[in-house]
Amino acid sequence: MKRITILIADDEVEIADLIEMHLNKEGYDCVKAHNGHDALQAVQTHSIDLAILDIMMPKMDGYEVTHQIREKHNMPIIFLSAKTTDLDKISGLVRGADDYITKPFNPMELVARVNAHLRRFLQMNQAAAADKPILESGGLVIYPEQRTVSLYGNLIELTPKEFDILYLLARYPKKVFSVENIFQQVWGGAYYEGGNTVMVHIRTLRKKLGEDVSKNKLIKTIWGVGYTFNA
């Protein structure tokens, strides 16, 4: 069975070593990088299953590394950063991260989040493989096995969490999902303060689907309740 490999990219060597030690105890293999250029090269030369990226790295910051990873790869990405404001967190999620952890951090919390993201990612992939039929609605086509989405023939680049949210809603059209329910099913953990995280992902998902200018929205807001797929 293939061992899971995690990329740790942080210019603080001590932090990267600490994360590696805790992840090794969980049975994960790790690849470390101390600047953005080496992080991107690691993704190109290793089979990476999840990436933990510092934002403020030399040569290339975590935002740009994420942008380039997303062009070719579909893996969970966790930002680990000293930037702690709500605006920083929202910006990180909008730029393609699946999660955002601030420094200083509890290594065990990081490990728990890594486990949750990998578990949900693998479960979604397995469910998609079992549900081979594609989903189509109003020019939108979802290919579960490949985890890709096209809109009127144009490929839409989604992060893993954006895909998971869209696929969840599309599989059950007209069913209303609360923010808490979406968080629990897509992130796979207990619901604490995940409301903003869900809403930020749905906002960016809608923008990628062109719903900021479209009158016929695929993702409909049911005020005070949640969201539904408007098939």
Give the arrangement of secondary structure elements.
Elements lengths: L4 E5 L3 H13 L3 E5 L2 H10 L4 E5 L7 H11 L4 E5 L4 H9 L4 E4 L4 H24 L4 E3 L2 E4 L4 E4 L2 E3 L3 H12 L7 H8 L8 H14 L10 E4 L3 E4 L2
Parallel strand pairs: 1-2, 1-3, 3-4, 4-5
Antiparallel strand pairs: 6-7, 7-8, 8-9, 10-11
Protein name: DNA-binding response regulator
Organism: Paenibacillus chitinolyticus
GO cellular component, one term: protein-DNA complex
Strand content bin: 15-25%
The helix tally amounts to 8
How many distinct domains?
2
The CATH topology annotation of the largest domain reads as Rossmann fold
* String of helices and strands: EHEHEHEHEHEEEEHHHEE
Strand order of the biggest β-sheet: 2-1-3-4-5
Strands, total number: 11
Please name the fourth-level CATH homologous superfamily of the largest domain.
Response regulator
Helix content: 40-55%
Structural summary, described in words:
The structure is a single chain. With 231 residues, this protein is an alpha/beta fold. It folds into 2 domains: 5-122, Response regulator (Rossmann fold), CATH 3.40.50; 132-229, Arc Repressor Mutant, subunit A (Orthogonal Bundle), CATH 1.10.10. It contains 8 helices and 11 strands. The strands form 3 sheets. Strands 2-1-3-4-5 form a 5-stranded parallel beta sheet, sandwiched between helices. A 4-stranded antiparallel beta sheet has the order 6-7-8-9, covered by helices on one side. Helix 6 (160-171) crosses helix 8. The longest helix is centred in the middle third of the chain and has 24 residues, at 107-130. The mean pLDDT is 87. Keywords: DNA-binding, Phosphoprotein, Transcription, Transcription regulation, Two-component regulatory system. InterPro entries: CheY-like_superfamily, OmpR/PhoB-type_DNA-bd, Sig_transdc_resp-reg_receiver, WalR-like, WH-like_DNA-bd_sf. It comes from Paenibacillus chitinolyticus. It holds the Pfam family Response_reg.
